[in-house]
Write a structure and sequence with these properties.
The protein contains five helices and no strands. It is mainly α. The protein is elongated.
């Protein structure tokens, strides 16, 4: 397996897992709080979180299966930076918790970088 494929699989699974588990299968309390911090009601989280989770699953699948294209990887990087900024702005206390968005999002950004770099090397 190539570095590019390993990184795409890992990044894709990261998005699929974080879309499915805390947003679709078991709506986490923190997800509800983040929706509320975004200016919506807790009840809105029952629709908005699964919708966001579905988008994450689709993005994860695009990262894995659209291996000739970088746009899903750039979209993932933009999302990871934006979501980290959102959490830092509305719930900075979450940044020091175990398995926090800093470690997850930075890891995801490193995979984005490795995919983009190895993609350009494969294109030569």
């Amino acid at each position: 397996m190539t570095t590019n494929l390993i990184c795409r699989l890992t990044l894709g699974v990261l998005f699929i897992y974080h879309g499915l588990v805390p947003k679709i299968i078991w709506l986490s309390e923190i997800e509800k709080q983040l929706v509320e911090a975004g200016g919506f009601t807790r009840e809105d989280a029952t629709f908005l979180s699964p919708a966001a989770g579905s988008a994450e699953v689709v993005l994860g699948l695009m990262i894995i299966f659209l291996r000739k294209h970088l746009f899903p990887v750039y979209l993932a990087a933009f999302s990871l930076v934006g979501l980290l900024g959102f959490v830092a702005a509305v719930r900075p206390d979450l940044l020091i918790e175990a398995f926090n968005p800093v470690s997850t999002n930075l890891m995801g950004l490193v995979f984005c970088y490795l995919i983009i770099r190895s993609h350009s090397e494969q294109s030569r």
